[in-house]
Amino acid sequence: MEVPRKKLQRTPILCIFLLLSFITRATAKKVPAIIVFGDSSVDAGNNNFIPTVARSNFQPYGRDFLGGKPTGRFSNGRIATDFISEAFGIKPYIPAYLDPKYKISDFASGVSFASAATGYDNATSNVLSVIPLWRQLEYYEEYQKKLKAYVGESKAKESIGKSLHMTSLGTNDFLENYYAFSGRASEYTPSEYQNFLAGIAENFIKKLYSLGARKISLGGIPPMGCLPLERTTNFVDGNDCVSNYNNIALEFNNKLSMLTNKLNKDLPGIRLVFSNPYDILLHIVQKPAQYGFQVASMACCATGMFEMGYACSRASSFSCMDASKFVFWDSFHPTERTNSIIANYVVKNALAQFLH
Ligand SMILES: *[C@@H]1O[C@H](CO)[C@@H](O)[C@H](O)[C@H]1NC(C)=O
Fold first, then answer.
1. Where in the sequence is the signal peptide annotated (predicted)?
2. By CB count within 10 A, which of 33, 106, 149, 257 is most buried?
């Protein structure tokens, strides 16, 4: 008769403990919002609301998104930051700041200021008249004001300090600007241009810090020589990845990684991490079958060789049936399944410290 009585005494204590841990977990979310800056890798539809041709708010984009809706994400479904938001127990996708469907009550738990075709360099965002990085920062300041009006000054400040700020850009500075036009290439060597971009990244992080951000993820760039568009035009190497572009990406990522170390020393209380998609994406491209993919050199959309944006839409009758078998959705952007794998990898290898 001794044993059951002990059990009876313990049960309520256990219940209270479970209840308390549940309450603390539910109320004290470590990261209340994910706040996103960058290019098409993380644009959730901001370009739908500015005059530019860098768009994807039409079929077949979004055909595997919730409700099969084209949102302006450059993929068949969700993008990496959507999966990261979900992994943090927040919401399954992060809305675009310029979308009038959403309000500050939505943005309070995550928002994207990103704009497809933008870069660190103002000259890059000028190519297709998209939102430059400095303008994304202005929108962010406006967002902070709205958040303060919505939840009050002190709660807003607390939320900003706990929120995870993420950047993902740089590819367009090289492929859409430096290697496409002679302007920057006549001013800078590739290495000098990387330093120029890293300098803009540094000022950007310092500005976020001065605005109260403490948890920041600086995004690296992918093995951009392996994007289908670059492979299609790589005649000399039999449509292999363009090694020069991959080397540039490695060098630039190395500079961003060093910048991360430096700023963690310089800025008290900052927790800056470098989130690098390079290795995982290169591995997927080199060993697609290990990840359940069948095609890595060509994209799903249209002929899979050149198309993105409106061209992808026009020729979409040629598109593949099952995008989950393809690493790339259009000639420049990964499929939803690839985005999910990259997001998991980044959460595990760079963002885990913010989870608990
Ligand atoms: C980009 O343009 C903005 C706005 O004109 C300006 O404040 C900023 O200094 C420019 N950035 C660079 C690196 O030239």
1. 1-28
2. 33
